[in-house]
Amino acid sequence: MAPRGRKRKAEAAVVAVAEKREKLANGGEGMEEATVVIEHCTSRVYGRNAAALSQALRLEAPELPVKVNPTKPRRGSFEVTLLRPDGSSAELWTGIKKGPPRKLKFPEPQEVVEELKKYLS
């Protein structure tokens, strides 16, 4: 027997959770500058890639703060988001729907830096 519309509800819940995470990442108050947020699962492989990526972002744009996991990350997630001062956000990379193999979930740091440059200019 086919499921009865549960999938749509689950997708709506995921969107609501993502919006809630962004509000929490903002600290609930107005930001004065743009911020890069890296959300990654807490397994060892994800952490190594997040560290390399945050280092590349800090070297490329030292004026931008980079936050790694400001809230509890979702299981299997690897996302990089630019939070703008006006409250909007731009997805620089998402690896949630990528893979297997697992290495497809992680971007090359230079790809994310190029995407960041597009949004900052």
TrEMBL record:
Keywords: Acetylation, Redox-active center, Selenocysteine. One of its GO terms (cellular component) is Golgi apparatus. InterPro entries: Selenoprotein_Rdx-typ, SelWTH-like, Thioredoxin-like_sf. Pfam families: Rdx. Belongs to the SelWTH family. May be involved in a redox-related process. This is Selenoprotein H. It comes from Gorilla gorilla gorilla.
